[in-house]
Amino acid sequence: MRKAVAAILALSMIVGLTGCAGKKEETAPAKEQTESSGEAGKKEGESTAAETTKSAGGDQAPVTLTFWHRDGNTTSNPMFDVIIKDFEEKYPWITVEYTGLAADSYMTKYNTAIVTGETPDVCTISNKDLNALVAQDALLDLEESFNQWEEKDQMLPEILDSARFLSGDGKLYMLGYGMTQETSWYNKKWHEEHGIEPAQTIDQLVEYSKKYADKSKGEYYFTLRGGAGSAENLFMFLMSYAGVTSFFQEDGTCNLNNPKIAEGLDVYASLYKDGLVSVDAISNGFKEMVAEFGSGTAQYMMHNSSSVAENEKNLGAENVMVVKPLAGKDGIAVCKAPSFMGAAAFKATKHPEEATLFVEYLASAVGAGYADVTEGRVPVNKGIYEQDWYKENPYYQVYATFAEEGVKFAEFPFWLDGYNEYAKTNITADFQAVLHGEKQAADVCNAWANDLGKMQKEYLSK
């Protein structure tokens, strides 16, 4: 476990050195970035003639790759249309067939495909799900081809170390294309009109929520996420309130039974109980939370960097900005350690060479650069640092100050078997019960600590 935490926490240090994506219109399509970024997919030692043949297709037999993306949505679907088109122009004998999946069920789709022997050639995954696929012997080992890849030295070593560790066997099955930074978003125009700075502490959030909530008009300061995916915002709030920076102690005991955690849950729940957030907040998932923020129902939202496209589309890029996560009374803001997305090839592919080319292209400065600027992710390929959009990014300087402003990065325990499902079901249901007044904060915090502590101690015993 110590190695897992060290590997992921190393990623948090990168945030101070790298920026995150902003306006899609500030970048050229991937194919237009090639000259400045260097071409992806090129192997060391290839001659110019070989490169020309490969780019032109030569006498290569036509190949069709199937590609599944873990989170098909209105931002990523057109994004991959551009990336795939550029890849197919570079490798004209390869055709890529794209399918965007639902983010909350993509692993079920992958697992079913593995069992039935109907896996795609290439897929995208979150780092937290890597081990589950490797454990099924489902992914292609990329180590040998990676060592021949021209851009291998451009990849942040912390990302590679983490991917090798999380695989469980030390091998490289996944190439990252971007990290996700937890942050808070605020309506810049609204704050300027009211002559206030955005909330940077929990006390300020509560103060503003009380001052600016107008239930009769359906207007609120904060949009609370009480439904699907609420555990991340919830734990960031509770740990910041209590000044607790780790889920577990060395012996596996879970820290969620800390009385300050329960006190923080009462404070968080009071925002709903007292009518300081919308009545719908109890069931808000990502789409509903972003809709409240984007429509002006709420002026402040806790979410990660990947909501940049939706926020800019809804409010206009000039009207939104990011601010560090909320801090508790001691000045500590606890933030979920950055996660990263990446691409992998399934072991059952009949076209391993072409599948690997596409995985490498998705991780290249060209392919990943376009994905990062579009989806709002922190680049993990250093070649992207030279792209104009990155240098001019409006959010970079804010993210770069997080570490020095008291932000502490906590690793959420996705390494535990059953944690993701537990967070999705038990924690969400308990949280909603507290919001409804059906359960006491101390009782649910003790239950979470007991259950997660058992999972952690079982993990440590292996």
Give the gist of this structure.
Pfam families: SBP_bac_8 (PF13416). This protein has about 450 residues and is of the alpha/beta class.
Q: Looking at the chains present, what oligomeric state does this protein adopt?
A: single chain
Number of H- or I-type helical stretches: 20
Distance between the termini: 11 Å
How would you write the strand order of the largest sheet? 2-1-3-10-4
Give start-end ranges of low-pLDDT stretches: 16-56
The CATH class of the largest domain is Alpha Beta
Q: Within the CATH hierarchy, at the fold level, what is the topology of the largest domain?
A: D-Maltodextrin-Binding Protein, domain 2
The level of helicity is 40-55%
Report the β-strand fraction as a percent range.
Answer: 5-15%
The Cα radius of gyration reads 22 Å
Look at the helices and sheets and give the structural class: alpha/beta
> Which architecture of the largest domain does the CATH hierarchy give at level 2?
3-Layer(aba) Sandwich
Number of strands: 11
Mean pLDDT: 88
Shape: globular
- Fourth-tier CATH superfamily name of the largest domain: Periplasmic binding protein-like II
Number of domains: 2
Major sheet description: 5 strands, mixed
